[in-house]
From TrEMBL, chain A:
The chain crosses the membrane at residues 20-41, 61-81, 93-115, 127-147, 159-179, 199-221. Required for the export of heme to the periplasm for the biogenesis of c-type cytochromes. It comes from the Bacteria. This is Heme exporter protein C. GO terms for cellular component: plasma membrane. One of its GO terms (molecular function) is heme transmembrane transporter activity. The keyword Cell inner membrane applies. Keywords: Cell inner membrane, Cell membrane, Cytochrome c-type biogenesis, Membrane, Transmembrane, Transmembrane helix, Transport.
TrEMBL record, chain B:
Required for the export of heme to the periplasm for the biogenesis of c-type cytochromes. Belongs to the CcmB/CycW/HelB family. It is a multi-pass membrane protein. GO terms for biological process: cytochrome c biosynthetic process; cytochrome complex assembly. The chain crosses the membrane at residues 12-37, 43-64, 99-119, 125-148, 155-173, 193-213. This is Heme exporter protein B. One of its GO terms (molecular function) is heme transmembrane transporter activity. Keywords: Cell inner membrane, Cell membrane, Cytochrome c-type biogenesis, Membrane, Transmembrane, Transmembrane helix, Transport. PANTHER family: CYTOCHROME C BIOGENESIS B-RELATED (PTHR30070:SF1), HEME EXPORTER PROTEIN B (PTHR30070). One of its GO terms (cellular component) is plasma membrane.
Amino acid sequence: MSFWEYANPRRFMAVTDRVVGPSFVLAGVLITTGLIWGFFFTPDDFRQGSTVKIIYLHVPSAMMAINIWIMMLVTSLVWLIRRHHVSALAAKAAAPIGVTMTLIALFTGAVWGQPMWGTYWAWDPRLTSFLILFLFYLGYMALWAAIEDPDTAADLTSILCLVGSVFALLSRYAVNFWNQGLHQGASLSLDKEENISDVFWFPLLACIAGFILLFIALVLLRTRTEIRARRLHAITLRERSA
Amino acid sequence: MIHILTRDLRLAIRAGGGFGLALAFFLILVVLVPFGIGPDATLLEIVAPGILWVGALLASLLSLDRIFATDHEDGSLELLATAPLPLEVLVATKAAAHWLTTGLPLTLAAPVLGILLNLPAGGHFWLTMSLLIGTPALSMIGAFGAALTVGLKRGGLLLSLLVLPLYVPTLIFGADAVRRGIDGFGPQTPLTILAGITLGTLALLPFAGAGALRVNLR
């Protein structure tokens, strides 16, 4: 029994059939708890007032926006090396979720930035690199949409994902060089004693976990849809040739 | 390899090759900018490095889809792929030909056009230097993008969507080098990083481009 057995579409469908529902429910519970807890049962920050509460949407979506790209990179590599179709389809399924997360992060950031920084948008390194990440997602999805043959599309988008990752990383450091930041540094890391006050930390943790589960549920659901679409296509082809 | 290079150069220079097109586009863009933002000399002085770099970038984007598309249409790309020459070398050669027909003329024209935008005197040398170092990266990245989209019917617009985000680091360091040169800070740091980007793309992207071509010719 190895991990690669899940690359078999039939096995994948059987396992995910049982996983998707519960992870949706659990994600819903966690996000609802985290948001209600965060919005109504935490004190206002003494300088930022109640605007601080956007953290419960902003931070998880921003984390997911980056992590989804990394997940796409890994699945693209798996496709290029081991030619598992499920892997390529998972990368395809993840991209629209990633672009949505990027948009949520940019939008919530703008809404928070207006009262706090006095502007919706500043050419800050973090903001700019997120905008560039958004463009990378758009290009990736456009390339998937443009190519008809699924295997060719999977190959070319995987190559684009590899090259794009290098350039996205390069852009991240280039914009640091280019402009000074307005955005605060990282306030969540594993090696510090206490990052932000525990009062805000626990509901935030619930939201982050909820977002991760929501992504897992969505990406599995979308991959299942892609597999079904692929099977349907095969059946129609067989019908037509028979 | 030399033959492919000279063949591409000849194709580009002769009628219908669009050799002057990028240069004309660059000129028109530089002429249009003052109409857009006003003829104020001090304002133009500030934006000149950025406009010239963005202009060079867009002008080199114009002729990207020609790198492989015309050869794909008349079937010569298949012949080149079956030739004993490695596909990686073909991609690099094509990029070199593209640079010689767009990047190099743009680099030589940029200081002249800089006069139109009131580029400060100290900037001309650094503009030429940064373009000379940076434009090979633009051609190489573009050749990779062209290899990705070669099989598509209307790949032109998609090509720019794919390639432009990849141009971001080159643009940042290129324009910054000129600005630093004008202000009298040392432009060596951005120029060195720019050279690093160019060398990195020259070393790695031929492989990615050749991979994409193999998929497209399958």
